[in-house]
Design brief:
By secondary structure, the chain is of the alpha+beta class. The protein contains 3 helices and 4 strands.
C-alpha cells in the first residue's frame, strides 16, 4: 500500500480554510482514480514539536504506481492546482509525505 500524508499546521483563517477544504478540495481529491481510501484527522495534541499541527490527511492507494498515476491524471492535476486556493488561509504550506 502507498499513501500520501498531508500535515496542515493551524491555519491563520480557520473558518475559510475549512470551508474551502471540506467543500471544494476534499471532493476533488475523492475523484482521484484508483483511490482506495482517504481520511482527515483533527490533531488534538502534539508533542516534541514547535509546530501547531491541525489536520493530518491520509490518501491511500494499492501501490506506488497507482499513486503516481492518480497524481498525474487530470483529477490529480486539479487537486494540485486547487492548493493555491488554500494558501491565503495558511501560515505555511503543508508538509506532504509519500509512504510505501
Amino acid at each position: 500500500m502507498s499513501k500520501i500524508i498531508i500535515i496542515h499546521d493551524k491555519p491563520k483563517d480557520i473558518e475559510n480554510f475549512e470551508k474551502h477544504y471540506y467543500n471544494i478540495h476534499i471532493p476533488l481529491a475523492k475523484k482521484l482514480p484508483k483511490l482506495i481510501g482517504a481520511s482527515v484527522h483533527r490533531v488534538v495534541s502534539a508533542q516534541h514539536t514547535d509546530n501547531e499541527p491541525y489536520l493530518v490527511v491520509e490518501v491511500e492507494f494499492n501501490n506506488s504506481e497507482d499513486l503516481h498515476a492518480a497524481m498525474a491524471s487530470s483529477e490529480g492535476k486539479a487537486v494540485s492546482e486547487d492548493v493555491k486556493n488554500l494558501i491565503p488561509f495558511l501560515n505555511r504550506r503543508p508538509a506532504i509525505l509519500i509512504l510505501e
